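thread: overnight batch results

M.L. [08:02]
morning all. the overnight job finished for the chain we discussed friday. pasting input first so we're all looking at the same thing
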Amino acid sequence: MGHRRFLKLRHKYRNDAKSFDGTKETRLAPCLVSGSLVLNQIKDIKFIVGQSSEGVSGVMKNTWKKRSIFFNLPYWESNLVRHNLDVMHIEKNVCDNLIYTLLGLGKKSKDNLEARLDLKDMKIRPSLWPQYPASGRAYLPATFFIMSLKEKELFFEVLQNAKFPHGYASNISRCIRKRNISGLKTHDCHVIMQELLSLALRRSIDKRVNSVIIKLCTFFRALCSKELKLDELKLLEEKISEILSTMEKLFLPGFFTIMVHLVIHLAAEAEHAGPVHYRWMYPIERYLATLKSYVHNCACPEGSIAEAYIANECLTFCSRYLEGGDSRFYCSRKCDDDIEHATSKEKCLFPTVGESYGGVDVFELDEKIWLQAHRHVLFNCDSEVVENYKN
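M.L. [08:03]
and the structure it wrote out:
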């Protein structure tokens, strides 16, 4: 909550108290805290390592709880990005919040009794307050952003039938069982946010929710691109504040965890730190998984990792002097996409590219489709074989 303060001063959402938390937003966006100001705030802090933060003295209450060892670095004070925000985990948490809330699945859904009680405490949206009938069990009125059974089937159908190029994504359908989804990895959530979510929600949810989620997915897709331009980042920074403010009108306050709030700072951080694929945790997490696979003796994990690492380096070095067969530097391609030209002098009109995958279906073309294919070849093929038939 509170994302309206990042909007422009004359934005219509600032004076809309009824659709939000019942108050008008007059605050400005918080200023960026400099390293000098932080060091000045914690210069008199006193704490004991290993004890709770309740005994910290020399600092304002509910601010700093300790002095990090990174504060002693000589360049920390002048560093523009002192805390890197990991886009991988932020995107994962946002995706989980969206999917489990829209599907209304279990404890991970942000639409629960506690979230409805928050509405009652804030005295907003009385139609969604929990009701207590004669049975005494709390009844939660239905919300427009939770899918019906038919909409869930359409949503799961898109995820199950999605096909991607080899190596682009894992098999997401493995996570779907009996109208339930679980076990999504970080890269699965990345693919869903980038490619599938906006497509799967087109016919599966209210248009108001659908439009704002599509804008959020577009934001992540633009943020994760290989090239970033400063003018585009400025535009993204303005759009994300409006996107999150619109989501405040639709979703419950419990939806906006700290990870959802951090989305508003990603575009501003990218202006200083550059593209996110140089800073996110994907390569680190994958290498940690590789090191974890080296451990075969749980009593001595460090020794297992050291021995396996040395053995791997030795084999990699020796493979440079070996010819033939697969190795670290000479490995056969899983997908053969090379074009095999015909051995005859005449060029082949339809060269063989790649290898067949899966089953093969044979069908006959009717006269209309055959004529369309014939015209497509004549007008779109630059081969010398076709040039003779055009005249």
